Amino acid sequence: MRSHQRETLEARLAAYREPPPPPKSDRELFLEAMQGVLPHKNDYFEHPAKYPSPHPVQRWRDEARVMRDAMTDFWPWDELESGEELLYLRPGVRPDSLKKLRRGEWVVQGELDLHGLTSEYARPVVGEFLHRCRVENRRCVRIVHGKGLGSKNKEPVLKLKLKNWLAQRDEVLAFCQARPFDGGSGAVLVLIKGNHER
């Protein structure tokens, strides 16, 4: 009996002493997994079509670039001046539109803050913002230009240029200085054409 146990024990020890078989390579494992699989007879592979965005993004960019480039710093302001307060009503627009804008009867649907921007950088930002508002049908927005306290001569440089830029934009129907609690002389409310208006 002891000899039988010894033989069994020696057989077990011999099994442990033998090195384990080397692991199979990735190729061997792949071929083993692919047994019985037939190759496809057709070499042709069809790529699904990539559909363009449903929004005419490039057209929007082109229009925004044209409008931005069309804005100049110089504009005849005889008909736009009204003292220190910014006021403008595009010819052909009903006068009560400006009155309602001044009284705050329009809901402000967007805001652009130009604090800290130079006029060179602010101009394209304003053009892009107004274009995007027209596309998104935002009718009334506030543009904060600041009071010019941080400028070299402590004058509102952006305020003066902004009125020129806004008056040149086709989508701007009217604009006025914001009410004191909406930014006062440091901001302007802008009434923009709706999507359906030409």
From TrEMBL:
Pfam families: Smr. It comes from the Bacteria. Residues 1-25 are annotated as: Disordered. SMART domains: SMR. Residues 1-10 have a biased composition (Basic and acidic residues). Residues 112-193 form the Smr domain. PROSITE patterns: SMR. This is Smr/MutS family protein. It comes from Chitinilyticum piscinae.
